[in-house]
Amino acid sequence: MTRDLIPLTTPDVSHFARALSRQMPEAGKPSHLELLNMLARAAGFRNHQHLRAAHAARARLDAPAPDEGFDAARVERALGCFDAGGMLARWPARRNLQILCLWALWARLQPGLALDELQINAALDGWHAFGDRALLRRDMIGLRLMTRSPDGRAYRRVEQRPPPEARALIRLLAGRGPR
To answer: Is the pLDDT of residue 160 over 70?
Structure first.
């Protein structure tokens, strides 16, 4: 039988210990379940069952939905195109990986903000290392991830829901680097 491991963290161990000591019975040793409930309450949960339910909900939210057709190998290959700082280090040869990488750059564009050509170039230059911002701009416009005004002066991100693999890549890159 395998057990679900439930992590328990607290920002203030001293407060946790005080809350736990207030719950300790005066006489006798608490049972296993009573001790689990005391630990959970000291951490801010109603009881151990509430702690378990909160942990299970977080795990479900963090995991990709199984019905989304998620290809983890493709996401991993696209992730390999980015360096440890989150910069697109190389342009992949395969088109499906190029598109995933463009979605990652799209996610870094501020929603609703119109950028002139100098601003979009500066942003793209900060997010890639292979020196072809025009390629990135054209591809993002071609894929309808970004629009350009008819006079060519304003670029704007097109709001839409990324596909499952793109969402996974965006999530993995979120803590890595430049915004």
So the answer is: yes
